[in-house]
Automatic annotation (TrEMBL), chain A:
UniProt name for this protein: RNA polymerase sigma factor
GO MF term (any one): DNA binding
Organism of this sequence: Amphibacillus marinus
Keyword Transcription attached: yes
One GO biological process term: response to stress
Keywords in alphabetical order: DNA-binding, Sigma factor, Transcription, Transcription regulation
InterPro entries according to UniProt: RNA_pol_sigma-70-like, RNA_pol_sigma-70_dom, RNA_pol_sigma70_ECF_CS, RNA_pol_sigma70_r2, RNA_pol_sigma70_r4_t2, RNA_pol_sigma_r2, RNA_pol_sigma_r3/r4-like, WH-like_DNA-bd_sf
Pfam families: Sigma70_r2, Sigma70_r4_2
Automatic annotation (TrEMBL), chain B:
Protein name: Sporulation and spore germination
Top-rank taxon: Bacteria
Keyword Transmembrane: yes
Keywords for the protein's UniProt record, in alphabetical order: Membrane, Transmembrane, Transmembrane helix
Transmembrane parts of this sequence: 47-69
Region: Disordered, residue numbers: 107-130
Length: 170, 432
């Protein structure tokens, strides 16, 4: 198991962490999701059929793990919102996480883009991260998101338009 | 710059987004993965164990039912035979005074009367079954959501920036105080952050779910004094303690329990315009309240007036109203239901063989005789939680349990070792 982990880690870890942290914007949560992704991958590695590349398989599992996290968070927030009279503060919690050091050092314009990513839909955010920040191909992005390539192209087009609009409005 | 150029520029900026480094080392990550994989394996083993025993029990039950059903069938046949014999005997009796036959008939009658008694008993048992069905929810395996106590090391508490703080509410009849521990996930560590806006914590839905009377802090705010020994309670100038909004008589208890974790000894009452004191309907103008250790020597019971189950410290016996001088008295109270107050006994009243021994200054040992419903279920888990809190109120740090028929885990508790007393009760997560 350790050999498999070593190999995956050496080849993909930086990209994997990059994808997840841009998606969840919280270092602790990103670490947990990446850890959970490795656990799932290591447990099912023997059954990996190689239909897709190892990298897209790994990213696809990371995406599902992150989705589970978002769903869980949504359920919890729904529960909390009904339990506590804190709707306004629930909104504020989304922005409470500190900027990673690498982002904090950027120009304001870049920081703005980083923050406005959260106002895109999750699909749009996924595409923007995979296609532009991770510079993956349309084919690879489609495999990770389990979409058709044309859906990736459409979503990517809309995502850029949306982000541009948000920048202008901000 | 036209729109397309702007979008192209945006794409270029996205491509220049920096690599965010993972601070966690490869070795540490691998270590965590291994720990988690081991945990999952253990969980799988436990799941198998949990699945295996009920399955074996179910199969055994089916066999027992088949055997019982077969016996009933044979008994049915016997009864037909008996009836035939009886008819025959009737005819014999009519034309014979044979002693042997008389004796045989006497036996038959006794047997018949025993069968009728058994039928009555069965009917009574069946009546009891209806009640058992109502209680069956408490026989389920306890989950995290069933926990009434919490420990600081619990996963939802044990994280950076997490703080807990206590607020107190009052039951529907305004007879006793119920502490709630609110867990904040992004705390500044300053209690003023919470207590200054305490009136916003519970929504109407939450009050309904908890089954409590109106939240007592609707119009109040609290602020800690500089030295930390004093808290200022501020209310609007026109504030009135009136029946239906707050139980005035419980104010000292409410405040004492709420600030028990701090070094606060006095609460100073004032109005928003700075007037010292608050006019109470019964006590007149009250300027300050001295706080006391209200949770000492309590018996914990279960309160449920709505969907939520809550642990509640009871400080006086239900029959005489006296305080508990010994933990034995508290244990006796824990076996008393007070249905008119929505309080249920945390230790089943039927458990008679209970021994409570002080093993050391810190440790209490609780021994209990057998009880059919004890097991890895909510009933037993809640009982353990209530006992732990009761022990804590008497100054103990841990409790060793020797419960007949239980040797191992009940919910989150490993009873093979002494169990430390919890850090709080009735925990609710809040988002800050």
């Amino acid at each position: 198991m350790e050999t498999t982990f070593d190999s995956l880690y050496e080849q993909y870890h930086d990209d994997l962490f990059q994808y997840v942290i841009y998606l969840v914007k919280n270092r602790q949560v990103a670490e947990d999701i990446v850890q959970e992704t490795y656990i799932k991958v290591l447990k099912s590695y023997d059954g990996f059929r190689g239909d897709s590349s190892e990298k897209t398989w790994l990213f696809s599992i990371a995406r599902h793990t992150a989705m589970d996290y978002f769903r869980k968070q949504q359920r919890q927030q729904g529960k909390l919102a009904s339990f506590f009279n804190r709707t306004q503060e629930m909104e504020r919690i989304k922005d409470k996480d500190q900027l990673p050091e690498e982002i904090a050092l950027l120009k304001d314009e870049m920081k703005q883009i980083y923050q406005l990513l959260d106002q895109c839909t999750l699909d749009q955010k996924n595409v923007l991260i995979l296609r532009y920040i991770q510079t993956l191909s349309i084919h690879e992005t489609a495999r990770i998101l389990e979409w058709s390539e044309s859906k990736v192209k459409t979503t990517q087009h809309r995502a850029i338009k949306k982000l541009q609009q948000l920048i202008e409005l901000d | 710059m036209d729109r397309n150029e702007k979008e192209d520029q945006l794409i270029e900026q996205l491509k220049k987004m920096p690599q965010i480094k993972d601070d966690l080392s490869k070795e540490m990550l691998l270590k965590r993965i291994n720990i988690n994989l081991n945990k999952q394996d253990q969980k799988q083993d436990r799941l198998w164990y949990k699945w295996f025993l009920p399955s074996v029990a179910s199969i055994a039950m089916v066999f027992i039912l088949i055997i019982v059903a077969q016996q009933n069938l044979f008994q049915g046949d016997d009864q037909i035979m008996e009836r035939t014999t009886s008819d025959r005997d009737m005819s014999l009796r009519s034309d014979s005074n044979n002693d042997e036959v008389q004796m045989f008939l006497a036996d038959e009658e006794e047997s018949g009367s025993a069968t009728a008694d058994e039928a009555d008993n069965y009917q009574n048992e069946n009546d009891g079954d209806d009640l058992n069905i109502l209680d069956s929810a408490r026989m389920a395996l306890p989950t995290e959501e069933d926990q009434l106590v919490y420990y600081d090391h619990d996963s939802f508490v044990d994280a950076d920036g997490v703080e807990t703080f206590t607020v107190t509410v009052v039951d529907v009849n305004a007879n006793f105080v119920i502490p709630l521990t609110l867990i904040s996930s992004s705390s500044t560590g300053d209690p003023n952050d919470y207590y200054s806006r305490i009136n916003s914590f519970l929504s109407d839905e939450a009050i309904e779910e908890l089954g409590i009377s109106l939240y007592p802090f609707q119009d109040m705010s609290f602020e800690f004094g500089f030295d930390g020994n004093v808290v200022y309670l501020t209310v609007p100038d026109d504030y009135q303690f009136s029946e239906g909004t707050f139980a005035e008589g419980l104010l000292d208890e409410v405040l004492s329990i709420m600030f028990a974790d701090y070094d606060v000894d006095t609460v100073i009452l004032q109005t928003e315009s700075g007037q010292q004191g608050i006019e109470m309907s019964h006590s007149g103008l009250v300027t300050e309240i001295e706080l006391l250790d209200q949770l000492a020597n309590s018996a914990y019971k279960i309160y449920q007036a709505s969907s939520e189950r809550l642990l509640v410290p009871i400080t006086r016996s239900s029959d005489e109203g006296s305080t508990f001088n010994t933990i034995d008295e508290a244990f006796a109270e824990m076996q008393v239901d007070q249905s008119d107050s929505y309080l249920t006994a945390s230790i089943p009243a039927e458990v008679v063989d209970i021994t409570v021994e002080q093993t050391s200054n810190e440790q209490l040992t609780v021994k209990m005789g057998p009880y059919p419903d004890f097991g890895d279920n909510i009933l037993t888990s809640e009982m353990i939680e209530a006992i732990l809190m009761t022990a804590k109120s008497f100054g103990f740090q841990e409790v060793a349990f020797e419960i007949d028929g239980i040797n191992g885990e009940v919910g989150r508790f490993n009873l093979n070792e002494a169990v430390p007393v919890p850090d709080g009760i009735n925990a609710k997560l809040i988002a800050d």
